[in-house]
Amino acid sequence: MSGSRVALAATLAASALGAFALSSTALAQSSRPYETTFAGEPVGPNDWILTIKGNAQITPKYEGSDKSSFVAFPSFTIRRATEPKRFAAPDDGVSLTFYGNPLVSFGVVAAYRGGRYYEDDRRLFGLSKINWTIEPGVFIELWPTEQLRARFEIRHGLNGSGFVGGVGLDWVQRIDRLTISGGPRVVLADGDYMDKYYSVTPYEAALNGRVWPFKADGGMRSIGAAAAVSYDWSDEWNTTVFGRYDYLTGDAGKSPVVRSFGSRNQFSVGVTAAYSFKTTW
């Protein structure tokens, strides 16, 4: 997939996720103490904080690829102005909290997943195309201490790619306007997901000539870590730099697509600039 097509797909995904959030925000509640001001201005029950983000990332061209591609896309989030701002790691899905308190929160989540296209890598000749998709699901967050966060997500691709689950721990250190975070990541997937992204049929193997037939089963897809540094220039402006590493394990790491011309080492880096402002509806 070309950079422009990836950017367009990501933009469409961000718009869809935003529309989803806007249609559901009335359900979001929090039992944490309310903030009473934003950027020095008082807020009321009908006020919202809208955050518009510009994102730039370098990520693998497709799952298991040894090549990277650059993508830039917009996104946005929204929360009640009386609802406290919550920590979010850059690799979290776009989420909407149904219930939250200082120890636990849960709600719905959605994420964008890129596809696999012949124009991304000519070595994919003969292998089936995989279209990009949106993965809706649910999440739960636990805060056993003020600095330690555990997050669990389970999602299912709209392209029928099966279930994928993410488990992450983050140590969150706030130093005035600076926030440093990071920790381990584990990704698990069911048989449908693994089959779609990592299996090779005999027919595909015969056409390609560089890979062999392989049936991928469900299990642990990868282990890794993520880290981010975020700075609040003001209540309105924020910048975040982040990175993530995943090591493909299990049948994902054994896949001929990975072993023949891909890599078990998957790296992603990026930067996000965000602008928040108050609006009344």
UniProtKB/TrEMBL annotation:
Entry keywords, A to Z:
Cell outer membrane, Membrane, Signal
* Localization of this protein: Cell outer membrane
Q: Is the keyword Membrane in the record?
A: yes
Question: What are the annotated GO cellular component locations?
Answer: cell outer membrane
Superkingdom in the source lineage: Bacteria
Pfam annotation, one family:
MipA
Q: Which InterPro entries match?
A: MipA
Q: What is its main location?
A: membrane
Q: Which residues form the signal peptide?
A: 1-28
Protein name, UniProt field: MipA/OmpV family protein
